[in-house]
Design brief:
mainly alpha; Serine Threonine Protein Phosphatase 5, Tetratricopeptide repeat; 64% helix
């Protein structure tokens, strides 16, 4: 990481390693940096779940994300709604 401080795989890996050592909060700092660079990084997402679970916050975070997603979809058309140009 000294060569490239934005190398997402190194950030995610370091975060996971810290979480495995029980340093969940420290690990989350690196994992969140990796996710900021690539929000679709599956390894970083998995590592975040591991760290949050270690902190006892996994269920709370999932519930908040679900609530946010439901709120975001409030204005989206229903999948069964047909959209036509008039």
């Amino acid at each position: 990481m000294a060569i490239d401080p934005n190398y997402k795989n190194a950030l995610s890996g370091k975060g996971f390693a810290l979480a495995e050592l029980g340093k969940y909060s420290e690990g989350l700092v690196f994992i969140d940096k990796a996710l900021a660079l690539d929000s679709e990084n599956a390894d970083a997402s998995d590592s975040k779940g591991f760290a949050l679970d270690g902190l006892g916050r996994l269920f709370l975070e999932m519930k908040q994300d679900h609530t946010s997603l439901r709120a975001a979809n409030t204005f989206a058309p229903s999948p069964n709604t047909s959209v036509t140009n008039a």
